[in-house]
Specification:
One of its GO terms (biological process) is glycolytic process. The protein contains 21 helices and 15 strands. It is of the alpha/beta class. Among the domains are: 200 residues, Glucose-6-phosphate isomerase like protein, domain 1 (Rossmann fold, 3-Layer(aba) Sandwich), CATH 3.40.50; 40 residues. β5, α7 and β6 form a beta-alpha-beta unit. The protein is globular. The structure holds 6-O-phosphono-beta-D-fructofuranose. 6-O-phosphono-beta-D-fructofuranose binds next to loops.
Length: 559
């Protein structure tokens, strides 16, 4: 399975797409007028998601060619290899099995001789038991008070997923529990998140796959000092080693694949929740990394969340490519990136609760596919990766949509909306959610169909500014609609983008599961840190620009 990837540019499908790209005149007005069934024909479902692809550069011939591209690069075989636990993460010689995190307990999946489903459910059951104790108040801090604040300390995949899910599922969370997230090594993050916290009722979750990440371990040590000092200064615990150990055990738990390092940190192994090296950090929110979310929303909602992932996993595994939503969306992204020169992709959730979804997707997509090397170590043969970005509607409309509507670049955009809001407020007799969703539909309509010069003129516009008020239209969007933003639907959405990312990676021949590109900066930071502490040699070892910057930094610094 890890033999050289197919060079996509040599496939018949690529040649066909190239030909179609050259011939195709995208004209959504004409395409919809000529084909009354277009909307239906290109609207698919996956789980609870209705996905309207009709405002994309799809014709029957393009769709066929995209499907053939998937076939010719071996998308289905590689997907099956991933699901079966083959070591498709070549540079780390690992299986890639986030899909096993959501398999029902009735399934089995032997990987390297071990049933991973049994392992997953053993940890899940322990997590659920722990979360229920915290939620019920049975789990108390060192002074006997129930936990009211959960602070997750982690970064990257050990933070972005949990924050995003916490924000997205706030309507499902227990009232008496608040979760906070400390990720940045900027000490102000720690300061702001702890300054008003009662140390007697806080629980820290140290989440780190490796348990070596500089930011997380530094913040975890700071949190431990803060906790012990705060409790001692308040006279809440004795100033003894035993009291400190007891306080650490009551107020700290860990999530990691490196349980030996968790014990070294002083966290009771009984309060550590493991996962496995076959779960990539950015694919880990549905592992124990989501413990803060499980505590917030409870076991039933958490199971529904996992069911949503599984539903999408099954769709990706079984739907024919022509109806396979993640596969088609991934293949379309390749079409835009490689044939239309699209460099970025907007994700525009029409839900304030999804305000961290684009940030979460940035790590998922860009850490996965921002690569120049293929899985057999050869150089890539086409542009790879897309810059994912976005903000919730309607905020984005008043910020960057100008570029989407009238800019010179093509920015394929995914609109995500929900039929029923968590809070159906009204204003002046109006249903505000309906007003909100009217904007969703209006934007996708405007992007697709634009406004001609004649239409502008018909409004009596001064001829001199007609060109500035023309909208070209023909800007591609995908509309994703779901009944409501429930735990299950959120699981489906996350898995959808995981599989879109995978699909793109397979076409480009990329190992989407390593992240060597983040290593160099991490190492250099460790070499540079002594220079900021006054080490002359370390300063002199730097290049001219870095040395100059550090000298200026030291001059400006007040303390
Ligand atoms: O969970 P860990 O091991 O602390 O790693 C945090 C993050 O750091 C990275 O390794 C690199 O940024 C991410 O892939 C990962 O999600």
């Amino acid at each position: 399975m890890n033999s050289s990837p197919v060079d996509p540019t040599t496939t018949g499908a690529w040649a066909e797409l190239s030909r179609l790209h050259g011939e195709l005149t995208v004209d959504f007005r004409a395409w919809f007028a000529d084909d009354p069934r277009r909307a239906e024909d290109y609207t698919l479902t996956a789980g609870d998601l209705l996905v309207d692809l009709s405002k994309n550069y799809l014709t029957p011939a393009v769709r066929d060619a995209l499907v053939r591209l998937g076939e010719q690069v071996g998308l289905e075989a590689r997907r099956d290899a991933m699901y079966a636990g083959e070591h498709i993460n070549t540079t780390e010689d690992r299986a890639v099995l986030h899909t096993a995190l959501r398999l029902p307990p009735t399934e089995t999946l032997a990987v390297d001789g071990v049933d991973v489903v049994a392992q997953v459910h053993e940890v899940l059951d322990r997590e659920i038991a722990f979360a229920e104790k915290v939620r019920s108040g049975e789990w108390t801090g060192a002074t006997g008070k129930p936990i009211t604040t959960v602070i997750n300390i982690g970064i990257g995949g050990s933070d972005l997923g949990p924050v995003m899910v916490y924000e997205a599922l706030k309507p499902y969370k227990a009232d008496r529990i608040e979760c906070r997230y400390i990720s940045n090594i900027d000490p102000t993050d720690m300061y702001e998140k702890t300054k008003d916290v009662d140390p007697e009722t806080v629980l820290f979750i140290v989440a780190s796959k490796t348990f070596t990440t500089l930011e997380t371990m530094t913040n975890a040590r700071m949190a431990k000092n803060w906790l012990i000092n705060s409790l001692e200064n308040a006279g809440a615990i004795e100033s003894t080693v035993a009291a400190r150990e007891e306080a650490t055990a009551r107020h700290f738990v860990a999530v990691s694949t490196a349980l030996d390092k968790v014990a070294e940190f002083g966290i009771d192994p009984a309060n550590a929740f493991g996962f496995w090296n076959w779960v990539g950090g950015r694919y880990s929110v549905d592992s124990a990394v989501g413990l803060s979310n499980l505590i917030a929303i409870g076991a039933d909602n958490w199971r529904a969340f996992l069911d949503g992932f599984h539903e999408m996993d099954q769709h990706f595994a079984t739907a024919p490519l022509a109806e396979n939503v993640p596969a088609l969306m991934g293949l379309l992204n390749v079409f835009y990136a490689n044939f239309y020169g699209a460099q970025s992709h907007a994700v525009l959730p029409y839900s304030q609760y999804l305000h961290r979804f684009p940030a979460y997707l940035q790590q998922l997509t860009m850490e996965s596919n921002g690569k120049s090397t293929r899985w057999d170590a050869s150089a890539v043969v086409s542009q790879t990766g897309e810059v994912f970005w976005g903000e919730p509607g309607t905020n984005g409309q008043h910020a960057f949509y100008q570029l989407l509507h009238q800019g010179t670049r093509i920015v394929p955009s995914d609109f995500i909306g929900f039929a029923t809001p968590a809070h159906a407020l009204r204003e002046g007799g109006n249903d505000v959610h309906a007003l909100f969703m009217s904007n969703f539909f209006a934007q996708t309509k405007a992007l697709a169909f634009g406004k001609t010069a004649d239409e502008v003129r018909a409004e009596g516009c001064d001829e001199a500014i007609v060109p500035a008020r023309v909208f070209s239209g023909n800007r591609p969007t995908t509309s994703i609609l779901a009944p409501e933003l429930s735990p299950r639907v959120l699981g489906e959405l996350i898995a959808l983008y995981e599989h879109i990312t995978f699909t793109e990676g397979v076409v480009w021949g990329i190992n989407s599961f390593d992240q060597w590109g983040v290593e160099l900066g991490k190492k250099l930071a460790l070499q540079i840190a002594p220079a900021l502490g006054g080490d002359e040699q370390a300063l002199n070892d730097q290049d001219g620009s870095t040395r100059n910057l550090i000298e200026n930094y030291l001059r400006m610094r007040k303390n």
